[in-house]
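Entry:
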Amino acid sequence: MDLAWPPAWRLAPVPERLPDPVASTGVVTATADRVLCRIPSVGRFMARARGPIDVRPERRATDADVRCFLGVAGTARWLLGGVPTLRGAAVALNGAGVVICGPAAGGTSALTAALALRGHGVLADRVALVTGDPPLLRRTDDEVQLWPDMADALDIPSTVGRVVRPALAKRAYRLGPEPSAVPLRAVVLLPGTEPGPVRLTTVDGAEERSAELHGREWHRRLVAPLLGKPARHTWAASVAGAARVLRFSGRLHDLHPTALAAKVEEAFP
């Protein structure tokens, strides 16, 4: 299985639909051996378990537009090869891997950037790849993507960032030391909007930790149809058995990302 990042791709014809799909989310459609990703205004992406991703860009799409969405197809390709991925960021903290999962716009990138500025290497911003037994956290999309207001809040000059897409103000930043793959140590969960003071607590019990990981995967609606429920359970149990699972609660937006990063560091002395 090719686990290189970024995934290789090529310009090629891509059909508008797949016959007899086993699962579909509207944007992503899967059969037993192919996954079709349709990204409006960008193009169509076809992933198979082996080989490069076929891409048919829309007429006005740029290479930057295509690269921005390669992760969607790349994670689908790994899933076809039996390797699910967590939808989250990841850092190497004191020689061990910590995955940070949360909802869209939930602060995972900001927390990752804050940890990087405190000297921890970035392994991923959106695609956390965990493989092997014992689980190893691998390096994937290791540039942190931030909107201008968050980059300003962290005192990161926009001039050092790479434009993610011409249509977006968001930029990608290479922050912190350059890490290698590290053993998985923990998964930190960020909530949506919650009342109360900010706390970081441990999820006790293997079954409870495993349950917290379900639905945190990339292409979560495709995982069971493509991987099978037993294999999905085995993977989640393997990750939960090797890693601590911690959950933030409370009004996270009341705290600066640097303060949240300090709480994560305190949990892993």
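The chain has eight helices and 17 strands.
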